[in-house]
Amino acid sequence: MTVLTAGLGGVTAGLVLSSREITDSLIDPAASLSSVAGIDSGVVAMAVVAVVAVSILGRVSSARIPVAMAALIVLAVDVPLDGLPGWISPVAAGALVGALAAERTDAVSLQGALVLGLLGGGLFGSRLYDVLVMGAINGSDSVIIGYDPFGEAESTRDVIFLVLVCLAAAALIASRIVNGPDAIDTPGSAVAVAVGIGLPIVGSTVGWASTAYRSEDVVWYLCLVGLAVAALVAALILPGRNGSVVLALFATTGAALGSGRWVGVSAIQLGLVIALFVAGGVLGARIPQVYVGLALLLATALSALLIGPSTGTASGVAGMYLLPFAAAYTVVAVLPVGREPLVVAMFVPFTLTVSVTMSFGYTGGAGYVFTESFVGSSNPSRTVLSLCGVLVVLFCAGGIALLRRREPA
């Protein structure tokens, strides 16, 4: 498998997350824990399928490419067909991730491309939709009756997704033709599979609790502590130093919690952020210093205390530009790891999250600049959120330091 194949496959799977607007957990905030409707179309289904797929396909090398191609076909067909069950796309995307991870992905470049592709597609895919909506609004004639900029943006996003699916399929076929079949069959780790199934379920349950009891700050704190403990326990259970990637990705979640979220409205801004994200990954592969990455994440979380924006764009300059670079650098710096631990960690930013209420608005005029700010009525104050983000990064740094004393698996 090539870096291009891994990257395109990861981005395709990540866009499934962003297009379905899955941002925190499997369980819909309006659903109860027993509601099947809230469970059949979420990120946890994708995470569980991915870890099971990588374990099975690791033993059956001949099935990896057929499974990946079948998943891409299902994803392509699911776009034009409306009314299909909601679980089809997450299951297909999970199978795609598992099949790609089961290939010969022991190189840092391949693992980094796959995990950053998924992370970037999941995080920046929704930002791409924002940019498309703003472009449709700014480029439309306000006198046109019935014009739907959101529908046009969704159509454009679907076209982009289909193009990516086709490119991923072409890259997969070309990679197999050039490199030949990967005939290495290796047994999977039952422990890693168990962690991969249990961790997202625990995370989604805790995330649901932080939303269902959003008026209770104490519950929110307990949920954050519970997620941190779950991440550390999972990292310690995984063999060798493999758990470091789980804590590295959870640290990025903490830094994002501390610095705020960025809402992009400019294609130039989005392009610059993606470029910094890619640059961080490349630098992390060539000069892997995980503690430097953790220091950058810590600086990002602390920046909210130094800058302290209470209105307008809550992320600030550090959250907007430094966070993507630091996140990519830190994650790649702890690679390579085993195949199953890699898949387990890839979904941590989407499953181990707490609910944070945001208030949205926009200012008129050129650009229609959307802004967002934290509100303290239904979750901790902005300052406390920043401090929580700092503590999460420090906690993960301590866990990574502990794991790095172990012998590699």
How would you state the average pLDDT, rounded?
A: 78
Shape: globular
> Between the first and last Cα atoms, what is the distance in angstroms?
23 Å
Order the strands across the largest sheet as they lie in space. 1-2
Q: Please summarize the sheet with the most strands.
A: 2 strands, antiparallel
- The fraction of residues in strands falls at under 5%
Describe, in plain words, how this protein is organized in 3D:
The radius of gyration is 20 Å and the shape is globular. Helix 7 runs parallel beside helix 13 (339-346) and helix 11 (290-307) packs antiparallel against helix 15 (382-403). Mean pLDDT is 78; it is low at 21-41, 308-315 and 359-378. Strands 1-2 form a two-stranded antiparallel ribbon. It has helices at 3-19, 43-57, 64-78, 88-102, 108-138, 149-179, 190-212, 217-237, 244-259, 267-286, 290-307, 316-333, 339-346, 348-351, 382-403; strands at residues 358-363, 369-374. It is mainly alpha-helical. 53% of the residues are buried. A hairpin with a 5-residue loop joins strand 1 (358-363) and strand 2.
Keywords:
409 residues; two-stranded antiparallel sheet; globular
Q: Could you give a short description of this structure?
A:
By secondary structure, the chain is mostly helical. Helix content is 67%, strand content 3%.
